[in-house]
Amino acid sequence: MKYVLVTGGVVSGLGKGVTASSIGVVLKACGLRITSIKIDPYLNTDAGTMSPFEHGEVFVLDDGGEVDLDLGNYERFLDIKLTRDNNITTGKIYQSVINKEREGEYLGKTVQVVPHITNAIQDWIERVAMVPVDGQEGPADVCVIELGGTIGDIESMPFIEALGQFSYRVGAGNFCLVHVSLVPVLNVVGEQKTKPTQHSVRGLRGLGLTPNMLACRSTKELEENVKEKLSQFCHVPAANIFTLYDVSNIWHIPLLLRDQKAHNAILKVLNLESVAQEPKLDEWVARATLYDTLQDEVRIAMVGKYTGLSDSYLSVLKALLHASVSCHKKLVVDWVASTDLEDSTASEAPDAYKAAWTLLKGADGVLVPGGFGDRGVKGKMMAAKYARENNVPYLGICLGMQLAVVEFARHVMKFPDADSTEFNPNTKTPCVIFMPEGSKTHMGGTMRLGSRRTFFKVTDCKSAKLYGDVNYVDERHRHRYEVNPDMVPAFENAGLQFVGKDETGQRMEIIEIPDHRFFVGVQFHPEFKSTPSKPSPPFVGLIAAACGQLDQVLQDSCNGHVVAAKHKLGDSFSTPLVHQNGHAQKQANGGVANGTCHANGNGSTHG
């Protein structure tokens, strides 16, 4: 097994995740099999209990693992299926060591960070790296490891020490370190400054790790004299210093690495030159070029409560992009804070109220994503009501589906007190109830998580056709509440169809209003399995309905044609237009694409 470690210096959010994924893409194009591991130094056991404002979205895997959003990047870039063990956290490592101590495995020994914690980290990496994730038998050829955070962070010190030991454990020719750093340009001087990278590499070397190559983030390509200076002071050959400069979309990043011969440098360090081939990235060239040429816009109103940080809905954005590109449309996302749609905002902040409703009414389609808590719930229901009454395409995911059901009960079935027991435990019309297997005392890992099967009970429905007229689909879930099965007959008599259910027939998975242009709700999270070559069917349905292509798409799906097959696209693009209260901005991806991700004026990246 060969290992490529990607670390970051100077500042966070440089795009380590995109860089690690792109390295994997280039090596895969050389004919090698790739797996990935993400190390997160925080003490949480997993990402499941963290607020999206803290760490972006929680990405859910097939096995129910709640992990860092970078694992979503890996899956989309590399077309692999990872497990919860591919995300290592300080909490997991310490928990495993403490469990062993309690079981007497270290009997008589003083349990310490070195060697017990560091050995546990190394053993975990070796064990997980051997697990195939690409559907083939046997281990992969190369494991790409991303160390989260920035060199110098106190919480990452045990991992730095462990990885230093690990480089000696696996031996020369089996370990390659790529350090991602920042080369800023001061506006006053206009000169690329190398000092931050010099200090970062000095700190890395002082901790026992020596970089084999540098991936330098900058606004423009590095000048030759800058490369020579970095080479001299960082002790890295100039041929091993690459520029990841700002580009129009992140599909260009693997191409940048290929054009600068990064694969040759990595293959040389790993002694793989004799078994690898020249990378074939024709598809990636086509992807990057096609996306840059899209002109016709489709506007989707994203109604949620985490609109201040687009990383909170990262996979939803990617799925929208995949679907919009498959329909040859340029995606424009109008961020609508659900609280701004509520009546209370009309008196407290009339300008925000007016702006929110203007965005909603100007959209071609409405999407209400998942979420937790009662803030903004009324606004989400108002968005669902607007879409239902005005025949505007609507997609509700998880909570978005549940609130569409509650809204239908209140305004169509005339149950004014209808609600979810999540928000009103004493409601007399509980449309959405707590699942019996859930826990109300322990939050982490106690939801209905991971891949579950949904069976289509109505074959002549839009959802079944979008999925290709199959009998069932496997999608990933993350929820504690579900539609009350006792109310299903009343809903269906009123015109709301439950077209998809679980194997017992008691758990509602997909809703539709048959005579609506496109009104669909799903209990699962289809965004987690979406890729541009296989865009998520519910998202394709939303985009197609929003731009008048739904009938053709349904016909193609029924005839066995995959919508995205026309344009073989392989993952997420970086520059949808994002509007927040009417202001158009570019959304970047991972700090690599041109511009910075903004919403409510707060910049963010997800590298």
TrEMBL record:
GO terms for molecular function: ATP binding; CTP synthase activity; identical protein binding. InterPro entries: Class_I_gatase-like, CTP_synthase, CTP_synthase_N, GATASE, GATase1_CTP_Synthase, P-loop_NTPase. It catalyses: UTP + L-glutamine + ATP + H2O = CTP + L-glutamate + ADP + phosphate + 2 H(+). The lineage of its organism: Eukaryota, Viridiplantae, Streptophyta, Embryophyta, Tracheophyta. GO terms for biological process: 'de novo' CTP biosynthetic process; CTP biosynthetic process; pyrimidine nucleobase biosynthetic process. It is an enzyme of class 6 (ligase). Residues 2-272 form the CTP synthase N-terminal domain. Residues 310-543 form the Glutamine amidotransferase domain. Catalyzes the ATP-dependent amination of UTP to CTP with either L-glutamine or ammonia as the source of nitrogen. The gene is LOC123070060. Belongs to the CTP synthase family. CDD domains: CTPS_N, GATase1_CTP_Synthase. Its EC number is 6.3.4.2. Pathway: Pyrimidine metabolism; CTP biosynthesis via de novo pathway; CTP from UDP: step 2/2. This is CTP synthase.
